[in-house]
Each structure stands twice: as C-alpha cells, then as structure tokens.
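Response to reviewer comment R2.3. The reviewers asked that we include at least one raw input/output pair. We reproduce the pair for YtkA-like domain-containing protein here without editing.
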Amino acid sequence: MSLLETLFGGTVIVVILHWLLGRLGLANYWRGVISGAVPTIAYAFYAVINGDGLDVIAIHVAIFLATATVLSLLASDKSNTGKRMHWVPKALVVFFGLLAVIDGTFVSISTQGVPPWVASMIMPRAKDHPVYSGFSGVTEHNDQAAKAVNEHLKMLSDEQQLGWEVEMIGLNTLKAGSATSNKLTMRLHDRQKQPMQNAVVTLNFFRPGYVQTLPPLQLQQNKPGEYDGSISIPDTGSWVVKLVIEADGKRIEREHDVSVTAS
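Raw output as returned:
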C-alpha cells in the first residue's frame, strides 16, 4: 500500500472506531485511547514487515493519535455543554485536517513522486515519457560538479562512437519487498548487430542523492549477448539504476530513473 492509503485509511479507521465505541456507550476517555491505539499498533506491525522509514512511521503515529485526541475533546465538550458546537472549534478541526492532508501529500510526493495521472496533467513531457519527480537529494554546484558534467558528456560521445545496442528488460516492472525477486535481462549487440559475449555487466541501485544504496548486482551471461540477474529492492518509490558495461577493453555507463511499486 502507498503512504496515502495507509495514512488516510488509518485516519478513517480512527474516526469509525471512535464513533462505534460511542454508540456502545464506552466512556469518552477509553474511546480516545482505543481508537488511537488500535490503528497505531496495526500500522506498527505493517511498518516492520514493509520496512517503512522512521519519518513515515512518525507521521502515521502523529496523525492517528492527534485524530483520536481531537475527537475525544470534541465529544467531551459536546457532552458537557449539551449544545451545538461553536463554529470556532469546527474551523480549527477543518484547518488541522487540511494541514494533515497537505503534509501527507508532501511526504508521499517526496518519496514516490507525483502520481503519473497527475503528472500527465501538469507536466507536458509526462504525456509521452515517464517523469520521476521524487526528491533527488542535494546537488553540489562547484568545480567538481562541472567536471562531472563534462565527463558525462564525454562518456555519451564515446558510447555513440562505439555503436553498441543495449536493451534492458525488467526495469519498468520493479516491485518492492525483501522477499520479492525482480528478474532483469540485458541484451547487448555491437555495431554490426552481432551478440557481444563475455561482457562484465554491473547494475548499481541507489536512491536519488545517494541516500540509500544496494549491493552491486553483476549480471551473468546465459546465452550469447544476453545477461540475466535478480535483485530484491526493500522500499517503494523513485530509484536510480546505474548500468556499467565492460567489453572488448571498452566501458560505457548509463543511468536510468525507475519507479518501484508495492508488490
């Protein structure tokens, strides 16, 4: 499940539990405790299994407990006065509700990027090509960064001169999960369309900004010009895959932005 599904789904569960416990005649204090604790504990188990980060866990716990607290305060105020609630508390509830929605949306976009259907409406290029808008980390703007750009341009020029044909299969269907094995296949041909054998092919997976990296994956040749391998990716969201190919004394590198979805 995505962050938005767990966050707002859990919030809805808090509200329903609080209402149901009230219908059963449970004391307001225990309504707040139970309605906040049940979704929080349930999500804690899910987070451990799914490998969610501490920032994602923190926002879930904060929203669930805050929702239960606000509902208990409102129910207590209503039972004490016996009158309709003043519009000011209602406005505050709406304000903080919107704030929670906005914060949850920002966290989701920063980790997984803008949903494709939204990107296609607000980003012109997204209609024809995949656009990955997750947080890419901090990029330096100095002499070293400029040198890296020049080296990258030179690498692209060298690759065009070699004329190698590289086809990667499996990068568009990556699934997250420590128990999920993603099969990847690379097909390599030379300028004359002939399969290239005995190449050393390495894949490096990392988060944008190098905030999280996985051990390098070396693909093995199973037939002329075709190399296979499998990898497990722990988290969903935007990843970068760096492909390194060494053959015939030459070397090329490519980077691909990929989106990993839940299994």
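The mean pLDDT is 79. Strands lie at 165-169, 175-176, 182-189, 200-206, 217-223, 226-231, 237-247, 250-262. Further pairs are available on request from the corresponding author.
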